[in-house]
Amino acid sequence: MKREALQKLELSDEQIDKIMAMNGADIEKTKSSAGDVEAIKQENESLKTQIADRDKDLKSLKKQAGDNEDLTQKYSDLESKYKADTEELTHQLQETKLNSALDTVLGGAKVRNPKAAKALLDMDKVKLNDKGELEGVTDQIDALKKSDAYLFDEGTKTGYNPKGGDGSNDNDEVQTLVDAFKN
Length: 183
Prior knowledge:
By secondary structure, the chain is mainly α. It has helices spanning about 5-10, 15-65, 70-110, 115-120, 140-145, 175-180; strands at about 125-130, 135. Helix content is about 70%, strand content about 0%. A hairpin with a 5-residue loop joins strand 1 and strand 2 (about 135). It comes from Agrilactobacillus composti DSM 18527 = JCM 14202.
């Protein structure tokens, strides 16, 4: 900034002196921070060099790992282990879905003891289709209803009256026993 430019603005000498002092302080401040800028530039260059060295080291390590049979074998082992684990979890999930669907069907058939009924079913013939429906279980449940009807709750049957079950054939033998123990 030049004094002549400030004089053209018709500022007083006192105002011009204050402005020039402030401008001089700003210039000195900038000069002192220029040293900081140089330090920052040097640090920046140093960091760029370190990053380049690191990238070279990583590429070298990657090449070594690619050639290393031991690492390749470990990778293959882990890959096969994860594949087997995934297959096992998928199988367990399918088994759980099948058991849940079977429990629902047995509940609908009014089975008294689902565990006992499952034991009598041929589970190799029971399959779960893509829609989540069971196949091969209805025929087996119908056969169980005929062969092991006691497993199913079919409500109360009318007309079943065992002999002496209504109390009409009771005699006084019980009373006689009671009298015998009174003595």
